[in-house]
Amino acid sequence: MTTLKVGSTRSLLRAVYDQPSVIVSLATIFFIALISAFSPLLFPNPDEIDASNRLLPPSPEHWFGTDELGRELVARMAHAGQLTLVIALGAMALSIILGVLWGMLAGSHGWIEEVLMRTADAIMAVPMILFALVFVAAFGSSPEVLIVILGILKAPLVARVTRASTMVELASDYARGLAVIGLSKGRILFAEILPNVFPVIVAVATLNIASAIMIEAALSFIGLGVQPPLASWGTLLKIGYSLIYQAWWYALIPAIAITIVIAAFNDVGKWLERYLDRRVA
Amino acid sequence: MLVYVLKRVGSSLVLLAFISILIFVALRLLPGDPTTFSLAQGDGVSPEALEKMRRELGLDQPVFVQYWNWISGVVVGNFGFSYFSDFPVGLLIAQRLPATVTLAGAALALAIVIAVPVAVVPLWLRSVWLERITNVFVALGLATPVFVIGILLVLFFANFLNLFTGSGYVAFTDDPAAALGFLVLPAVTLALAIAPQLVRYLQGSIRGVAEATFVRTARGKGIGWGRTVSNHIVPNALLPALTSLGITVGSLLGGSVVVEVVFAWPGVGQLVVDAVVKRDYAVIQTIVLLAASAFVVVTLIVDLLYGVLDPRLRVSTSQARAPRSGDTSVIKEASV
Amino acid sequence: MARLRNKRHALMGTLAAFAVVVLAACATTDATTDGTTEAGTDSITEETSENRVVTVGQNPGISQLNPNISTLSSEKVMWNLLWDGLTTESEETGVQPELATEWTTSEDGLTWTFSLRDDVTFHDGRAFVADDVVKTIMFVLEPENASPQRSKLNNVMNVVAIDDTTVELTLDVATPLLPAALVDVKIFDVDNSDKINETANGTGPFVLDGFVPDQELSVLPNEDYWGEVPVIDGIKVVKYSDQVASRAALESGTIDIIWSVSFDQVSGLIDAGLTAVVPQNPSQASTLGVDTGSPPFDDPRARQALSYAIDRVTMQAVAFGGLGELNFGSTLVSPKNEYFAPDEVIDYSYDLDKAKKLFNEAGVTEGTNLVCWAGDMAPQYRAQCEVLQQSLAKIGITLDIEVNEGSTWAARFYPAGKEYAGLIVPNYLSREPAPLPFVVSYFGVDGWSPSNWPGNAEYEEAKARVKSVTATEDIRSAFADFQRITSEEQPTVVVMNVAQPSIASPDLGGVWMEFNGTIHVEGAVIQ
Lengths: 281, 336, 527
What we know:
A: mainly alpha; 75% helix
């Protein structure tokens, strides 16, 4: 039987010592999240057009330079970061909700397990960007739609992990004991199994955020994701790239930001996986 | 053995059927249809012309009839017609397939050439800090989206060094030298995008093998470390790593979509992006189905080959199904 | 173990082979790529003779080859390569005979007789006869074929082949500019129209060599052409959907000209030593459309206020790369058009005070919300909205910007008559300029502008005159009235006249752009 042991401080410190980069990653995420969340306060006028100051390089007055309409790039990046993170977090949340229900259902009811898991396999067989393109063709590419698409895209992975965990848990003596004393399957699932499955999900969730950011950026970069006047980092990257001969920094800044954030989430996700793997006996 | 083969083939077919339904339904959920796009371009289009277009494309029939028409055609190789150009979808894809295959093939070859040494050398030299450096680069590589790699390469080579400045495509058969010149940047971009994944898979399977008893036996027999690595560890590690070939093909196809757009490479990836812009469902559904089929087929072949090559698996198929702990986490971290 | 070892060796052998092949490729690539780059520059300076293939890069590509159902302006480049019309447009001298040698009209102007050339053959060898003209025109007139040229031939009631080299057209309304309207009606092999994408059987100066839809079109000179056989080796039209890639290709010599470069790229490309190909008098107009049937823009004062509130100079700099001609009269007649009447139009130079005053009179007070509806097919629409947003903010009006997918434009505004209160819609009109009747037919009764302006008696009268008169002074006076009325009423606000430029390498000659943005490469030469 597995119990959720959050763990002693000692084991936590040990885990951090084994992978010290996780501190840097967490700090990065925290920093970027803070700036993005407070972007309306820090940079109240991202859309201030100043036609005479277009495409200036980074300098003390313009930290990231200016864009093609004279707007402060640092302000645009902050606001775009907010949208990027909102879409990624929304997608992650949807993938967790959908995936956990999916996986628990599949793990506990033998008769529909085949259908559910085949559907999961089907979604995972399609290269992610092509899958996203199919839905963009059908539903367009507003941020809400992108959240739904990315959520559905990553849900099968969560489902697989959840199903495996659920099956293991249900087979344990503890769960079987609960069933004997009359608890309904639903109650067992949600009250007892879910909390034990949860730690594993957290790691997958973190990795899903990274994946969502990457796919959304790719879609926006080829013009089929977040469209102007809204902007995510991918959109800014697309515009920057088209101006690469005139303003090479304009493409570099979003590129670096996207890469750093994905690396940070990946790092934290892997660390969580290892740490929680240790906790779950 | 035969039973195993039949079961695997059967389940692959079922999977393909699921995929085709999924794709088809997704595209039909949209209100409106491809005729509205061509309408936006012209300003002399009458309602009769629209009706004619709809009839010709079969859009006035119920969904399951449309699905059946499509899928029964696909099975015999008839992929229907594009909604826009009256060209058969099969022809459109065939015209562009050589370009994509060239790109993907070159990228895969390059990626293997990069990944194998990167995974093996730190083990061979038994250097811990070399392994740490490798891990940092691999982590960075996995986090860098393929288009960022492309942008950096364009900035570095085309802008600063003034090499490989042309972008376009020439068929190999026409002019091999120029063709290679155009191929370099896109292939290197795609190769760098998937090499980190391959390194991870290799590292995972090497780790699994390095702890096996026969390695200790080899060392016990007095075989030097170098020999042990090259004759015992690596060959046995390659086979498990092969199981990731399906996912690698999937990543290649996904990555080539972006690379083809960025480098003006006239392959199937550009075709699907154009089709999405125009809402050309006929083209989109066929390409996505083919891409997914490539994944399924490659995985099937690898699984069957694995059954042939590794006798241990033929004994208990359930073991083959169990995920190896190294592998699942790598799947999650996979990039585009 | 033995079996396994063999397989191991096989695997290692394959990997080794891969490695060798790739390394060899890398080695040769390094050598040849330097060679290619140098060869690229060499070919521009060495091959000063005309033997070369000229390559056009454009986005989007060419989807299909029938000029009479083309809806994409990107396909126009091939209209003059593979096909001929009865008449053609020339850079210096306007409308010229092409397949027709001369034409006469009856007294009442309702019957036209065209004499055709007798030495023309289709690409498949068949002789061109009057019947082909009849079939083509009937094809265009058939509503089911959805030909964009149909509206140009609106007045044609009947077309008959008198003999193999004579065609007679019967109209219901006298149309003095019929030859100009026929320029875009390209003669094709109607009986084999279902194979047109594979054979492109026309009469033009080039024949089809290869066609990958949306990707590449390649044509070769037509050795049996009735006119001058082109001197170059061939023309390729290749799709480049990525601007950076097309620019890299142009600078390295892989392509010779990029069609329709977006405005924000222009100055950078000129600085790099490339040539901009623009029309001498652009007729295409950047406009802002409003719904004149609903508040607040049903009040002409509100429309005038909008026109005053547009900072045309900034819009030109920011959205159009500084190109084009500003149109302060805000009518569909460009200041460079020979029928422009400067004394008849109001001067709508940027004046926020006038704008505010007129808006207030029309009931648009501070705190009002308007929406700028920008389609995503052209980047300048969004930029225009953004400039307007800043201007209106200064007089207390909030402008929200909505960017919408190009494919939703039709559903929102087509057909004419739909309601869109409070929306301002940047648009780009690209049809025949004055003195062709399209301009006046755009508005009023039976007009098909989405502005919903009903016109007035005076306007309808001016419209009728434009369509019927033939003497130059009468045309001039009719158009003067048209300009006066529309400048005052502002059914659509016109910002400026500008054509999307093409950018060419300096050694490409013989290429020119029509007033409506169509690029002509059929006469290309390497200098």
